[in-house]
Specification:
Blueprint (H helix, E strand, L loop, with lengths): L2 H20 L18 E5 L17 E8 L5 E10 L4 E7 L4 E4 L3 E4 H7 L2 H12 L5 E6 H10 L3 E5 L3 E3 L2 E4 L2 E5 L1 H9 L7 H17 L5 H9 L5 E3 L3 H16 L3 E5 L2 E4 L7 E4 L1 H11 L14 E6 L6 H9 L5 E7 L9 E3 L8
Parallel strand pairs: 1-16, 2-7, 4-13, 16-17
Antiparallel strand pairs: 1-18, 2-3, 3-4, 5-6, 7-12, 8-11, 9-10, 14-15
Helix pairs in contact: 4-5, 5-6, 7-8
């Protein structure tokens, strides 16, 4: 056995021991509830370039990256918000079910997976930022074939396969601890057995991500070279050397036992038509965010009376997105944008009911 093989074997054994202690995915709570209307502010928007005063944010050391795997129809079939804090040497991964409903600026309510096929990747990042209440700095989208290509280039990923992965009468992946090549890792990542809840698929996403982080080369230049050959179906907002450093930071945190995983806390809802969908569970979300992403919570997000509904009073296309870009840096929470009941407002107004004597 070579020195590198011995090092990899040691890392895998450490990873298995940590995994047994660390499994802490929050389950998808399957409770069908009626959606409740929340009080929020209303923004009557006109086409103006004047921005509100920008709130000062504390200095952040954590950086976030939305990683998404894109299926054949363009939708995201797997998503995780990754975070790395080099100062604290910590890492985090918040796993996002594709069926959770989000508000996409300028588009409306969509499932998070479908958003990727409907709007540019920036729209998905903004939607997740508004939903979770954290800053999403960057994005990285790969197709299933590119993910398989990367895994193959790394020599496969070690995973614990909990159930056999089958298609019809064919067993694609046997159960048990093993090293999976790219094609089989993707099959395992996306698999959901009959009667299983979405939590099971999120747990498999965690297995593949954890295995991928574990087998990354420890030299940034080597990883950068492997990222460069992935081609145009790997799209990121980061320069590739910076992406490599980010991923290697997760690997360092993982080796120290400081890479934490959890899933977005959600509650099942019934939108009709036999479609599966979830909404976020706010109290549990706050707990998860405080544990994994506290440094990325923008200043003012949790203050009362700052939730804003944008009503387009002049009919200008894209005005909702423009207004959001001004509201969010000022500490407001963007709720949604739609046309006002009637057009022709001469002034832009921010009306916050909670801050008035009539509230």
């Amino acid at each position: 056995m070579t020195e590198s093989e011995g090092s990899r074997s040691s890392r895998l054994e450490l990873r298995r021991r940590r995994r047994r202690r660390r499994r802490q995915l929050t389950g998808v709570l399957v409770v069908v509830l009626a959606l409740l209307a929340a009080a929020f502010a209303v923004y009557l928007a006109q086409d103006t370039t004047q921005a509100p005063p920008t709130a000062q944010e504390p200095q952040r050391t954590q950086r976030t990256l939305l990683f998404q795997v894109q299926g054949e129809n363009g939708s995201a079939v797997a998503s995780a918000l990754l975070a790395r804090d080099p100062e604290a040497n910590t890492g985090a991964a918040l796993l996002i079910p594709p069926q959770v409903l989000v508000t996409v600026p300028g588009t409306g309510s969509l499932t998070f997976g479908r958003a990727l096929s409907t709007v540019p990747p920036e729209g998905s990042r903004n939607a997740l930022s508004d939903l979770v209440g954290v800053t999403v700095d960057d994005g990285w989208v790969v197709t299933t074939s590119v993910l398989a290509q990367l895994i193959d280039a790394l020599g496969g990923v070690p995973v614990d396969v909990d159930v056999p992965v089958v298609r019809g009468a064919t067993v694609l992946v046997n159960a048990g601890t093993q090293n999976l090549d790219g094609a089989r890792a993707v099959e395992f990542l996306l698999y959901l057995a009959p009667e299983e809840q979405e939590q099971a698929r999120l747990a498999r996403l965690q297995e593949v991500l954890d295995g991928l982080v574990n087998v990354l080369p420890r030299e940034a230049s080597e990883l950068t070279a492997q990222l460069e050959v992935l081609g145009p179906r790997s799209v990121t907002t980061m320069e590739l050397p910076a992406l490599a450093e980010f991923l290697l930071g997760l690997a360092v945190a993982d080796e120290a036992g400081l890479l934490q995983y959890d899933s977005l806390p959600v509650i099942a809802i019934d939108p009709g038509g036999g479609v599966q969908a979830f909404r976020v569970d706010p109290p549990r979300l706050t707990t998860v965010v405080d544990r994994l992403l506290a440094d990325s919570v923008p200043h003012g997000v949790r203050e009362g009376g700052n939730r804003v509904l944008v009503l387009n009073g002049v009919g200008t296309p894209g005005l909702g997105e423009k207004v959001r870009d001004k509201l969010v840096p000022a500490g407001f929470v963007f709720v949604d944008s739609r046309n006002a009941p009637s057009f022709g407002y001469e002034k832009t107004q921010v009306f916050v009911p909670e801050a008035t004597t009539e509230a």
